[in-house]
Amino acid sequence: MQTMSEKIEYMSGFGSEFSSEDPRCPGSLPKGQNSPQKCPYGLYAEQLSGSAFTAPRVENKRSWLYRIRPSAGHAPFEPFQKGNITHNWDEQEPDPNQMRWNPFDLPDKTKNVDFVEGLNTVCGAGDPKCKAGIAIHIYSCNSSMGNRAFYNADGDFLIVPQVGELRIKTEFGKMCVQPNEICVIQQGMRFCVEVSEDSRGYVLEVFGQHFVLPDLGPIGANGLANPRDFLTPLACYEDLDSTHEIISKYQGKLFVCQQDHSPFDVVAWHGNYTPYKYDLANFNVINSVSFDHCDPSIFTVLTCQSEKKGTAIADFVIFPPRWSVQEHTFRPPYYHRNCMSEFMGLILGQYEAKKGGFLPGGATLHSMMTPHGPDFKCFSEASEEPLKPCRVAEGTQAFMFESCLGLAVTKWGYDTCQKLDPEYFKCWQGLKKNFTGSKFA
Ligand SMILES: O=C(O)Cc1cc(O)ccc1O
Ligand SMILES: [Fe+2]
Questions:
Q1: What's the pTM?
Q2: Which of 102, 187, 237, 306 could serve as a FRET partner for 60 with CA atoms 20 to 30 Å apart?
Q3: Are residues 100 and 247 in the same domain?
Q4: Among all ligands shown, which has an atom nearest to the Cα of 317?
């Protein structure tokens, strides 16, 4: 695939203490202290806090940015009326049905829509004011943000591109994120998305906590998503004295303000609170090599934990290409009723439990205790297939946002997008009675 990215370099590690200086300004990072009376090169020092000052050391997140001007120099914010972001979870009556969306529309070719204008909330729960909850959005855009920068005061964005490469300028430097890669841009970090084609993807927003790598327990010290495969940008500033717009997502609404310079004017920075990206192809898959279907938590890339031990406000789980070797086992996902909510998306190919109907760029939602599982065709085939070792999910990538919260579907998700498939329930209708009363059916 032709990419528009120049060769971008990154630093490797998850949540590490990084430091980076734009090579055009050697010595721009103050030595031995954060706030010198005068910073090198006449820069301003600014701290970005991603945790309470007093959070335990392992959870303490902050970065120091050395920038041409401090972020405070901007005109007042006013409401920004574009896009379909909402945190009004009462727009629709609750609906426990299994839901499936056909692929969400790419933007109308006659209009220019950027990443922020192209954000639509599908479902969610909770409230950023109380730092509790999540929102799931679909973005669909065809234009770059130009002199616009966005930051989310409410929480963190985990962005999953499905079509189109995103070139993301951040205060920390540049990232290029393609389908089958993801990135996380945490609370408060300013960024600008450039695209050169129709682009679409999914966003998981968490209000309360940051994403962490799951514990590995008996798996040991290595496996699943390895920390060294997470990539953080290198400092790269621009010095532009032209009008820029800053868009803030604050308490579920968008606001815009103007300033007379680029916000991407960070010459050097250090800290452990940064944006990062991850290539899903680097996921080290661990699974049963004897029998039975393991729970999909074995495929957790990142988790955002609730206060309740082991219970996620949101897990980001993938279904990567892998070997399937289990003996005397029904190998696809089992039939399931879950106390958690399961929102699934498809980046590429087909999902093993539903080879028809669930399409790349579409989604499903199986709410709390809503029964779901393999469709009729999958069940019939997998009950009879010879159990040889075989590759599954080759050339595909499905994923799940799993949450302990009950998710409410928005008006956009239910109605405006016009993608909800009323026929979805039919995929389980062919599951007939096989019971004969005799042990050997
Ligand atoms: O398709 C789903 O519903 C997701 C899922 C996958 C799996 O392998 C086991 C349980 C589960 O909920
Ligand atoms: Fe499930």
A1: 0.97
A2: 237
A3: yes
A4: 1
CA of 44 to the centre of ligand 2 (A): 50
Report how many domains make up the chain: 2
CA distance 70 to 261: 11
Distances from the Cα of 196 to the Cαs of 137, 161, 193, in angstroms? 21, 14, 10
Range of the domain at 300: 283-427
Q: What is the DSSP string of 222-271?
A: S-BS-GGGEEEEPP------S-EEEEEEETTEEEEEEESS-S--EEEEEE
Specify the DSSP element, H or E, that contains 185. strand 181-185
Task: Tell me whether residue 1 is in a domain.
Answer: no
CA atoms within 13 A on the CB side of 20: 27
Do 317 and 359 have their domain in common? yes
Nearest ligand to the CA of 354 is 1
Q: Which atom of ligand 1 is nearest to the CA of 338?
A: 12
pLDDT tens digits, residue range 376-426?
A: 999 999 999 999 999 999 999 999 999 999 999 999 999 999 999 999 999
* Residue 342 Cβ contacting ligand 1 at under 6 Å: yes
Asked if 243 and 392 sit in the same domain, the reply is: no
Ligand 1 pocket residue status of 315, Cβ below 6 Å: no
Cα–Cα distance, 407 to 410 (Å, whole number):
9
Task: Kindly list the distances between the CA atom of residue 102 and the CA atoms of 118, 349, 363, 377, 418, in Å, as whole numbers in the listed order.
Answer: 18, 14, 7, 19, 9
Give the CATH number, domain containing residue 204: 2.60.120.10
- Helix (H), strand (E) counts: the chain: 2, 28
Pick the atom of ligand 1 nearest to 332's CA: 8
| 116-126 pLDDT, tens digit each | 999 999 999 99
What is the whole-number distance in angstroms between the Cα of residue 338 and the centre of ligand 2? 7
Same domain assignment for residues 177 and 255: yes
* Residue 251 Rama label (left phi>0; alpha psi -120 to 50; beta): left
Is 158 near ligand 1, meaning CB less than 6 Å away? no
What is the complex's ipTM, to 2 decimals?
Answer: 0.98
Q: Is residue 247 part of a domain?
A: yes
* Assigned domain for 436 exists: no
For ligand 1, atom 9, the nearest C-alpha belongs to 333
Q: Do residues 103 and 163 share a domain? A: yes
385 and 398 share one domain: yes
Q: What is the DSSP string of 342-391?
A: EEEEEEES-BTTBSSS--TT-EEEE-TT--B---HHHHHHHHHS----EE
Contact 353 CB / ligand 1 (< 6 Å)? yes
